[in-house]
Amino acid sequence: MDGPDREAVEKCDGSESNSVAIAKKLIHGRMLIGIKDGRFFVGAFYCMDKQGNIILQDAVEYRSTRRSSPSPMEHRGVGLILIPSACRTSCHVDCSVQDQLSLLSLDHHD
Q1: Are residues 57 and 42 in contact, defined by beta-carbon separation less than 8 angstroms?
Q2: What are the angstrom distances between the C-alpha of 16 and each of 12, 21, 22, 55, 73?
Q3: Distance (Å, whole) CA 59 – CA 45
Q4: Rounded to the nearest 10 degrees, what angle do helices 18-26 and 97-104 cross at?
Q5: Staple partner for 43: which of 2, 16, 59, 91, CB 3.0–4.6 Å?
Q6: Start-end of H helices in the chain
Q7: Non-local CB neighbours of 35 within 8 Å, separated by 6+ positions
Q8: Contact, 34 vs 87, CB < 8 A?
Q9: Is the pTM of this model over 0.90?
Q10: Buried (b) or exposed (e) across 76-101, using 16+ Cβ within 10 A?
């Protein structure tokens, strides 16, 4: 059996795609995600769905404050947060150089 049918059977049998294997390595790793309104979130990567929405756990929200404030950034703990892929502008992962290179190739696989 070759082609799409074989791929479907392999995925049903419990084997996983390269992208899934790479994402699993990132679980509980530190991640920084920027969103369109200028805020960013730092937390532990918890999961990502097929649409690219990401859930961070133990997340902290950072946003810039008014210039009159003594601190240029304000932060608050938000705990578990879902960040829709449509809102994301950047995503940085704290991982090894080899893992970073693997992440760069995610768009070209599967």
Answers
A1: no
A2: 9, 7, 10, 21, 41
A3: 9
A4: 140
A5: 59
A6: 4-12, 18-26, 97-104
A7: 41, 83, 87, 88, 89
A8: no
A9: no
A10: eeeeebebeeeebeebebebeeeeee
Mean predicted confidence (pLDDT) in 4-26: 62
The structure tokens listed for 21 are 């294997």
Evaluate the CA torsion angle 1, 50, 88, 102 in order and state its sign: negative
Which pLDDT score is estimated for 67?
A: 66
Paired tokens of 68: 């009159």
In angstroms and rounded to an integer, the radius of gyration of the C-alpha atoms of the chain is 17
| Spatial CA neighbour of 26 closest among 50, 51, 56, 53 | 56
The 3-state DSSP class for residue 99 equals helix
Q: How many whole angstroms separate alpha carbon 96 and alpha carbon 104? A: 13
